[in-house]
Description:
Blueprint: H1 3-18, H2 21-28, H3 32-46, E1 51-53, E2 58-60, H4 62-88, E3 94-100, H5 106-119, E4 123-129, E5 143-148, E6 157-170, H6 172-178, E7 193-195, E8 206-210, E9 213-217, E10 223-225, H7 228-236, E11 242-245, H8 246-254, E12 259-261, E13 267-276, H9 284-297, H10 307-322
Parallel strand pairs: 3-4, 3-5, 7-10
Antiparallel strand pairs: 1-2, 5-13, 6-11, 6-12, 6-13, 8-9
Helix pairs in contact: 1-2, 1-3, 1-4, 2-3
Amino acid sequence: MPINEQRAIATFAKAIELGSIRKAAQAQGITPQAASHAIAHLERHLGVRLLHRTTRSLAVTDEGRHLLEQALPALAALEGALTQVKESRHEIAGPIRIGGPKSSFAPVLAPLLEEFCTRYPAVLPDVALDDAIGDWVLDRVDVGFRIGADHPGSGLIARRLFPLQLIVCAAPAYLDRHGSPATPDDLSAHRCSVYRNTATGQIEPWLLNHDGAVQQQRLPPRFSSNDLELELQAVLSGQVIGQLMNLTAAQHIRAGRLVPLLLPYLSAHYGVYLYYGSRTAQPKRVRAFIDLAVERLQDAPAFVLGGKELEAAAKAWRRARKSQ
């Protein structure tokens, strides 16, 4: 039903209920002329007379009574649906669709979802993780995360949460056998892992910071994989040196399972971003998730390693080696 017809039927029903087109207009917040015009337009559209009007009285015709009998249940259902949608904006309940990268993002997202669902058990998360950047509108994403540069796309807001650090690191077992590279040029003599892009099949270079500028370092693929978790396990086992994201490396560096290397060349030019639409029309559950994500992940001390912390981790391994 076109929306103008729905409004006209609602005006007609209200006029019968209150016994006056003027009162119906007042109840709907329109002028009496607009109400009268809407009913007259509906009558012309249907080709029947719905009301008998005089200056003092208003009576419904047989055709009008039949229309009311058929239309009132539908109008009540529609009004109930509209009210439910409006009220849902003020409840922290219902479905929320969350998007994000698939590779290595579980350590970031899983604790956040656990806390959110504990706080708001009536919310129903629908999580879709994909390393490809899709169409957020077509994918019906309410809020999501992306790694990279700030490119929110049309109609989206991007908020940078924390830097993505690319840290060259190795397990103590590897360093004990092969030693530690002092400069990027030394890497060619080491067993280095490289990432194979899942979309292109090409080997990705390491990205190193040289005096504030990011440069690509291409390495012989002693170990290559299109799976970041498998690469992490290869580095942890002492088979290779890897350039790993702080999302997965931070906990292992703090535990001493990995040693950060080439610290002057650490790259942090990418970021982890939170994406969402305009806050003006968001359901309360979406706003609550955004607020919690910002509260927990802004600057992300669980994942971001400061310079002093990285240097301390590197020195701890050197001290341990000297004491052997």
